[in-house]
Amino acid sequence: MQHIFDKLGIDEGYLIIALFGFALVLLILNIVNTRQIKKMKKNYETFLSGKDALSLEECLIQKFMEIDANINQIKKNREDIELLMEEKQYAYSKIGLIHYDAFGEDVKGKLSFSMAILNDRNDGFVLTSIHGRDGGCYIYSKEVLGGKSFMPLSGEEEEAIETAVEVRTIHM
Q: Which of 25, 82, 112, 126 has the most C-beta neighbours closer than 10 Å?
């Protein structure tokens, strides 16, 4: 062995010092790794032990049960929304209002009006209030089916119905 070191020009003392330094570096790395592993093990045990004496498994089971309950609630909400949308088509949700002077110059202030109140199917009624010359007020109501009335309509009543028919509603 002596001959190899002599041929390479390496002193055995330097080699021993280099190997000792290398061993020292490995020892330091080993100590650092051991501390990191202990820290990770402590975190892992804390994670598995849970909080308030609940284990991780119990916590996961509880969360899955909550998810299942949420899924069931979402299904119920969807059914309720579908039912509401079916019923909504019969609820009055569209209004058209036209103010006017019924007798032109004699009675000013646009105190007369025609108001159409319709549902999504454009069924409902048109309500007309005419403010008279003598200060009286006369109210008339006419049925509307499909946006049309079978009774004769004034121009203002037709305009009120057209305005109500154009109202957009939510459809799902």
A: 126
